[in-house]
Amino acid sequence: MTPIAHLMTPEPVTIRSIALVAEASRLMVTRGLRHLPVVDDEGRLVGIVSDRDLRGPLIGDDRPTRPSRPAPTASIGGLMTRDVQTARPEESLGAVARRIVDRRVGAMPIVDESGRLVGIVSYMDVLRRLAEDAEHDARAIELMDVG
Questions:
Q1: How far is the first Cα of the chain from the last one, in angstroms, to the nearest whole number?
Q2: Which of 41, 55, 78, 126 is 20 to 30 A from residue 145's alpha carbon, by CA?
Q3: CB 30: neighbour CB atoms within 10 A?
Q4: pTM
Q5: Cross-strand pairs, 15
Q6: What is the DSSP letter of 23?
Q7: Backbone angles phi, psi at 10, to 5 degrees
Q8: Burial annotation 80-106 (CB, 10 A radius, 16+ → b, else e)
Q9: Distances (CA, A) of 63 to 10, 24, 57, 58
Q10: DSSP run (H or E) holding 36
Q11: For every residue of 37-83, which 3-state class applies, written as one string?
């Protein structure tokens, strides 16, 4: 099966944990990002921030959440998710897709053996590829039926 390295966005936009929420928000809006990996000085993944983290809790959501929308002057380090689901570049698309579904994450950072961020793959990247594969398979079946 296809290695996730063939599907990932290499060298994704990142931010440091000392950055402010306002900076992360601006970066995500201007670049059209929904997930922003947080890295240390050596490029190792230390967390991730999503657009949902920046919006705050939903009304009526009874899950444990932050009390309100984060202050623009708060640091990303206090807001980011630290226990991040990651994958290695050589892992298969199927294995990564299964973890995205099982863990209910919107994106999965791809890290090398030393924990350095080398890419990111979103659930939309995975769905797009699976849809392309399904269309290709359907065309192949049609051709076999004709022959």
A1: 27
A2: 126
A3: 9
A4: 0.82
A5: 38
A6: H
A7: -75, 155
A8: beeebbbbebebebeebbeebeeeebe
A9: 34, 24, 9, 10
A10: strand 35-39
A11: EEECCCCEEEEEEEHHHHHCCCCCCCCCCCCCCCCCCCEHHHCCECC
Burial of 114: CB neighbours in 10 Å, binned 0-12, 13-18, 19+: exposed
State pLDDT tens for residues 67-91. Answer: 567 787 889 999 999 999 999 999 9
Task: Locate 50 and state its tokens.
Answer: 């999503």
Q: Residue 122 in 3-state DSSP? A: strand
Cβ atoms < 10 Å from Cβ of 33: 20
Token pair 């980011």 in the structure block, residue: 80
pLDDT in tens, 105-144: 999 999 999 999 999 999 999 989 888 877 776 766 777 7
Strands 35-39 and 107-111: unpaired
Q: Are 37 and 115 in contact (CB under 8 A)?
A: no
- Nearest of 64, 113, 68, 54 to residue 88 by alpha carbon: 113
Band (146; pLDDT cuts 50, 70, 90) = low
